[in-house]
Amino acid sequence: MSPQIVRYGELKPCKTAFIDAHTPGSDQKENFTIIGGGVSESADQHVHISDTPGFNIGAAGQPPRCRNSLHSHTTAEVFFVLKGRWRFFWGRWGDAGEVTLGEGDIINIPTGIFRGFENIGVDYGMIMAVLGGDDAGGGVTWAPQVIEDAQAHGLMLGENGVLYDRNKNQHFPEGVAAMPLLTEQQLGAYPELSVQDMVPHYVARYWDLLALARDQPAPVIGEQACIRDRPGFEVDFIARQSLGDAVQTPTMHTVLMPMHGHWALQWQGGEAVLNPGDTCLIQPGEAYSLRPAMTGEASLYRVTATDDAAGATLGH
User: Fold this and answer.
1) What angle do CA 197, 141, 58 make, to 5 degrees?
2) Pairwise CA distance, residues 145 & 160, whole Å
3) Angstrom distance (rounded) from CA 219 to CA 301
4) Is 212 helix (H, G, I), strand (E, B) or coil?
5) Burial class, 31, CB count within 10 angstroms (exposed 0-12 / middle 13-18 / buried 19+)
6) Rounded to an integer, what distance in angstroms lies between the CA atom of residue 139 and that of residue 72?
7) For 104-163, what is each residue's pLDDT tens digit?
């Protein structure tokens, strides 16, 4: 199982993953593709584990006041804050609503709305991401102003979903046109959710989950979870006291993502300690046991594939 563990300290960032890579305010962000193909528009993106378990695991690292520009996905996009303090905002112009998340908080952003996020902390921050589907919906749909701003700084997006950098004397290949901007009619189909519509239904707080996981793992995303949705995977929250030494044998792909503390993972023929920011992929049928490896606070998120269609649905 060791090759299925990606260590936080070994993550390889891509600084040219998306169209806003040269846009001031977004030009210092780092994108990580940990499991699956991800949604990068750049050939520079490093993929740590190329398996496609029905969802993708990635991350975004950003210094203070660096933001990710407004975009939309056709499948679910779930984030939890590993480090720092983050502002998530949404809507055509990013002003329909916003919410601030601290370390351990989690948000499930529905499909079909424009969203962005910004590190509003004082240090480098990291958010971990789960994207529905093996291909994460085939890419990203950008708000028109994002594409226009990027063009002003030399980056162009082709209709093939590939970035071309005029600063490197790159041009669209023959037969490839620029990605068309969404029309006003198309933009009208993107909902403008209020804070009241978004936050109570799509956000869960770390300290609430810690209390809910007192005796057993707390369902975070699922049909009967805190965030009720069926996006092609389930998420539960495990704390020190909610998981014994019993052997688990998953029937679907499972990913372990520690939030706090150190976790002892054992499997037939081996063992390892998982630390905050590490990611571990467990294949169906691979038996494992998990327990805190040290005293103190310990918590992790566990993501499990389901047979549901890969997309969060508004109003779930």
Assistant:
1) 80
2) 19
3) 10
4) helix
5) buried
6) 9
7) 999 999 899 999 999 999 999 999 999 988 765 456 899 999 999 999 999 999 998 889
Q: Look-up: residue for tokens 């480098």?
A: 124
Q: Which residue has the tokens 């209709």?
A: 159
Helices (H) and strands (E) counted in the chain, each on its own, are 4, 24
Q: Which domains does the chain have, with CATH numbers?
A: 2-168+180-202 (2.60.120.10), 206-305 (2.60.120.10)
Q: Are strands 125-132 and 115-119 parallel, antiparallel or unpaired?
A: unpaired
What are 121-134's pLDDT values in tens digits?
999 999 999 998 87
Position 100: which residue type? T
Question: What pLDDT was estimated at residue 312?
Answer: 55
Instruction: Decide: 45 and 21 in contact? Cβ < 8 Å.
Output: no
Amino acid type, 169: N
- Residue 316: Cβ-neighbour burial (10 angstroms; 0-12, 13-18, 19+): middle
Pairing of strands 67-72, 141-142: antiparallel
Tokens, residue 182? 């969404």
**Angstrom distance (rounded) from CA 14 to CA 278:** 18
3-class secondary structure per residue, 42-54:
CCCCCEEECCCCC
Chain length of the chain:
316
